[in-house]
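Exercise 7. Given the encoded structure of a 405-residue chain, write a plausible sequence.
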């Protein structure tokens, strides 16, 4: 057999270069269910790496709902929503989510990622302007790339800069002449790498002053902020003033999916135009049933959200007392700043040896010298597990001279 040259041979060089620069991230393979304790490489580790805020990935009611749905409705939906993939349960989930979010309507997507890449290019075009926070999630950035609308980025959390962009855009209009048709201000509700909360009341006020619409991506606020985890709009009492709320069903809700909450007309146009909705198969029954039950559990068991916050407060306070820098976090996402990626990688490896599973986050997910360990304590962590985690952080912190005293 003749040996043809491999046209993709350059990929191996790219991987080698990543390894050399400590930017290669091996996949850690779990052989257990998600939860506060996981098995990685045949070791039992306390995990601070999941987004399973409320422990709903393994909640008995949620699992039972999924099992019953498989038995009654099968393993898959078999089609995209617009052809033969809309089951009564898909519509029921959306009605229940709309009631939960206190919005007129909801449309679900296959993920939070596809919710963003679906909604943004559907509602914006050449005559519009998108104004985005510099630290918005990759799926918002991709959604903007798929839109024909021009975009402007304001420095993270800088509402004065946002106001200036809005002022200029409304005073000067479009470069080709005429006013912008829609100005859409987009922000994460909780920023996924820093754990800080968007200054939503000020953002909404600025947008209202210039007739702009606000879209908030509540992936990390769902289940975490607001009554029963209704999100950042509820947290700040801004109902009716945020045109679009994106949420995920993949983190606190414990399963998989995303949704867009807003007006009925928004839902309707998305059912006609949003490409992930039109061209990708709908959720299987088990996922829909799990999400529906999880939304009920969130309302029936508010103690889960209370426990999440109690654990969060304790963990942050103790890390700070031990001398770690936890950045600007205000939520259960607690970054532990490491500086360079090599230290972050070594710290994470040593924690695994100490029985704690925490992943480093390095460039390009965060800026080059802002490498960090990204931790999330959940409602499911027991006090003794947090004791063990903090002791391990203390030991490794001293060993790598990241903390003193
Ligand atoms: N938006 C934000 C802010 C996120 O952090 C994430 C998940 N990393 C997503 C959207 C995507 O959500 P999903 O995992 O449901 O695709």
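Solution.
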């Amino acid at each position: 057999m003749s040996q043809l040259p491999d046209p993709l041979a350059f990929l191996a060089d790219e991987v080698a270069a990543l390894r050399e620069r400590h930017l290669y991230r091996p996949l850690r393979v779990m052989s257990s269910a998600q939860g506060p304790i996981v098995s990685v490489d045949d070791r039992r580790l306390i995990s601070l790496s999941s987004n399973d805020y409320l422990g709903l990935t393994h909640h008995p009611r949620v699992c039972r709902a999924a099992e019953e749905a498989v038995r009654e409705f099968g393993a898959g939906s078999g089609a995209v929503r617009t052809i033969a993939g809309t089951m009564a349960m898909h519509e029921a989930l959306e009605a229940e989510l709309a009631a939960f979010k206190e919005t007129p309507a909801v449309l679900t997507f296959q993920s939070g990622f596809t919710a963003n890449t679906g909604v943004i290019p559907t509602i914006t075009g050449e005559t519009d302007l998108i104004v985005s926070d510099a630290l918005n999630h990759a799926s918002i950035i991709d959604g903007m790339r798929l839109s024909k609308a021009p975009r402007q980025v304001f420095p993270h959390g800088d509402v004065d800069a946002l106001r200036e962009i809005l002022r200029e855009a409304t005073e000067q209009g479009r470069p080709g002449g005429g006013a912008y048709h829609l100005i859409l201000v987009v922000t994460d509700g909780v920023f996924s790498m820093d754990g800080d909360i968007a200054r939503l009341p000020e953002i909404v006020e600025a947008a209202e002053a210039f007739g702009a619409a606000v879209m908030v991506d509540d992936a990390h606020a769902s289940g975490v902020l607001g009554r029963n985890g209704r999100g950042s709009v509820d947290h700040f009492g801004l109902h009716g003033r945020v045109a679009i709320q994106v949420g995920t069903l993949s983190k606190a809700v414990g399963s998989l999916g995303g949704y867009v909450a807003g007006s009925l007309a928004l839902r309707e146009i998305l059912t006609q135009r949003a490409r992930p909705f039109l061209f990708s198969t709908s959720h299987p029954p088990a996922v829909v049933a799990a999400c529906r039950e999880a939304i009920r559990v969130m309302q029936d068991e508010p103690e889960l959200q209370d426990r999440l916050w109690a654990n969060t407060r304790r963990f942050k306070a103790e890390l700070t007392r031990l001398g770690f820098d936890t950045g600007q976090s205000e939520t259960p996402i607690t970054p532990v700043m490491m500086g360079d990626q090599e230290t972050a990688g070594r710290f994470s490896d040593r924690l695994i040896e100490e029985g704690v599973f925490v992943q480093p986050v390095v460039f390009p997910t965060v800026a080059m010298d802002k490498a960090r360990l990204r931790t999330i304590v959940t409602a499911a962590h027991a006090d003794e597990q947090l004791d063990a985690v903090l002791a391990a952080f203390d030991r490794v912190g001293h060993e790598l001279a990241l903390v003193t005293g």
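Remark. Residues 113 and 138 are 8 Å apart (CA to CA). Students should compare their own answers with the one above.
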